[in-house]
Design goal:
Strand order of the largest sheet of chain B: 2-1-5-3-4
Oligomer: heterodimer
Helix content of chain A: 25-40%
Helix content of chain B: under 10%
Order of helices and strands of chain B: EEHEEE
Largest sheet of chain A: 6 strands, mixed
CATH superfamily of one domain in chain A: Aldehyde ferredoxin oxidoreductase, N-terminal domain
Shape of chain B: globular
CATH topology of chain B: Ubiquitin-like (UB roll)
CATH superfamily of chain B: Beta-grasp domain
CATH class of chain B: Alpha Beta
CATH topology of one domain in chain A: Aldehyde Ferredoxin Oxidoreductase,  A, domain 1
CATH class of one domain in chain A: Alpha Beta
CATH architecture of one domain in chain A: 4-Layer Sandwich
Structural class of chain B: mainly beta
Distance between the termini of chain A: 38 Å
Radius of gyration of chain A: 22 Å
Number of strands of chain B: 5
Largest interface: A-B, 40 and 21 residues
Number of domains of chain B: 1
Strand content of chain A: 5-15%
Largest sheet of chain B: 5 strands, mixed
Shape of chain A: globular
Number of helices of chain A: 23
Number of strands of chain A: 17
Amino acid sequence: MANKIFRVNMTDLSTSIEDVPAVWAGHGGRGLTSTIVAAEVPPTCHPLGVNNKLVFAPGLLSGTPAANSGRLSCGAKSPLTGTIKESNSGGSSAQLLAKCGCKALIIEGQPKDDAWYSLAVTPDGVTINKEKEVVGKGNFEATKILGERLGVKQGIIIIGTAGEMKMRSANISVKDPDGNLRSGGRGGLGAVMGSKRVKFISIDPKDGKVEIADMEKFKEANKKFAKSLIDNPISQALATYGTNVLVNIINEAGGLPTRNFTSGQFAGHEQISGETMHDLIQERGGKVKHNCHQGCVIQCSQIYNDVNKKYKTSGFEYESIWALGADCAIDNLDIIAEADSLLDDIGIDSIETAVAIGVAMEAGVLEFGDGKGLLRILKEEVAKGTALGRVIGGGAGDVGRAFGVTRVPVVKNQAIPAYDPRAIKGIGITYATSTQGADHTMGYTIATNVLGVGGSLDPLSKEGQVELSRNLQIATAAIDSTGMCLFIAFAALDDATCLPALIDLINARFGLALTGDDVTNLGKSILKTEHAFNLAAGFTNQDDRLPEFFSMEPLPPHNVVWDFSGEEIDTFWDF
Amino acid sequence: MQVTVKLFAFFREGRFKEEEREYPEATTVSDVVEGLGIDLDKVGITMINSRHCKFETLLQEGDNLAIFPVIGGG
């Protein structure tokens, strides 16, 4: 199946299949979504207007047997940040889209009427259908109905009611092999999909397959690559404790933002930790390891059951647990799991929404630690789209503005996740300079600042942090283009066989002879493309700053402030 | 001297979460780790009083020592 661009115009309800322009040919995943958005979306457009475009792209290796290659990138101009945005997710759809011969799916325009639509992708192209049955339904009910209508094997990409209401924190969810949901959470891309009036996209590759230029070389490289992942001790710990193993370590390091970023340690850390979660999962007959897409050998996901041993949630991540837990001062894992499930059903980012509620707690809308109040707000306000629900659904920045709160942890209006930049300074550089607002995954300095992966660098010192964040942001942009899960980076940073095997996989897939330098240059060019879009949208270096309170309020227990000057931060872009 | 030792993830299996323990003067981090029957190769990071430390660092009265296996997340 040849790689093609599938284009859908929602203004005149037309579709087309196009050849891939030569300048897009070497791109996949994030590199491709950002290249297309930069080429076709006017940077100053309204993100929810007719001129924005929503682009889905499987990675360069998605749809092949390469281990961990099932990430789907989704890009657009973000309604939350106003910047370019790429959010990626597990689930089955990246592999299925690639098998349809779809290198990218571009959704543009906007219907003139109030109807809702669905898109059906096959190797023959895209068809547009009117949709009524699942409109207004939460993600769980909608995907169940669609499973019955279309068969369980089809891929589903869907928005919940948050996306229908165009909330700026709405996410896009992707069905995983077990029928559960994974989400491209950050930046409100679900609102962009809602603005196009597309409720869901189904994907049926029929007998489509991804061609591999040199199968023997590919198999050999995949064996080495998978071995490097499986042998890595961090992969093994992820399969046992999930990402939530971080609660205790980040708390110990004094960088676990607590009670809306007023402390770096949470008294209830043990109750919400990965160790406690592991024991509860085992007691209740859940699964400590689970893969979010076929071919994942790390298996950081899990099945978390409630106290009655019934399924409650999966993909129960550290950042969500931190945000609903420490940041809101809630120390009950079952309440956090219930909230995580509600957020998945509503289709809204668990980081942004929980940080927004932390700000609302500071404003006195509810008390810190009020788990029942948090669940009520999600069910009665956010899910129903009341005035308060829409303010919270607009993200932490909107809550701060609505209630006059000054301690609002956002960069470019996107909530800062689970690592306080005062106590872990490298991640502060990533938050400040990321092309997409505060996002730990853009350049995960926690690896080197805290975990001792890829060397070690004192988290409390300014020394070397800009360079660390820059190198990681460049590498991440490249990895995000391959379809690989970012967790391959733990092996890539410390195992010399991992990255060469990954490059061999790409070369064998396409019949190329790329080197490590080519991959680094790809990462650099993606960052520059994204940065140029933001500058054209009106951003300046003054937007690459953390909120004022971080430099004024010392964070216990280390009692440190954010002390980088603007000039120091700006050296990030010297490459 | 008294040192509080905290263990995490699978280091807790068959040991403890947190204990006040008595050690002689001039005890190093690696002395504590090996004394608990933990293989040094399995240790990811160690912290004294929430700051990263080395195996050869000497412990002081009242220190809080945290010992983690090689772990990651994010």
